[in-house]
User: What shape does this take?
Amino acid sequence: IEAAIHALGKISDERALVSLVNLIEAGEAQWEGTICRALIEIGKTHPSATSEAIRDSIHRQGIRPIWLRVIGGLARDNELDVLIAAAGHLDSEIRRAAIAAAVIYGSRFPENLLIGSLQDESPKIRAKAAAALGAYASDSTIAALETAIGDSDALVVAKAVSSLSMSGGKMVLPTILHSLEHSASPVVIASL
Assistant: This one.
């Protein structure tokens, strides 16, 4: 089955969309990654049809992380509304997939949602938000990333440092050094 799904993606025929979406709706989770890649491949050639198939499935059965991964892979502004809505979802896996897609969308994704996601209970979501904020250089983003350097999760700290180096430029070193002087946090040290 996996080889057939892969071939459908390479052929990139929009007639395969219904079959691929049906597999996900039927709960074929073991093929999810391959189906996601195939849908993205088809979406490169047939973006509107792919978007419509995903939106129809969301309407029928609700949002799923795979749909957000496909939307992220397509990186079309037409689907940004789905990601924005999903970023506030109660299910942390859906929030994580939405914020992960935000990395691909860059500065087209609302900055305030990413800054808010730095406060999420899930460190995976906080790390994805910190990574996505690298696309911004506003004072509010830099302040939020500087705060995120004090996070208890090493991955969040590493992503915040990386994003600060992209968006805050020269400000990252003094911020890290200040954190070291006041806490000697192993997390901050690890981010160096």
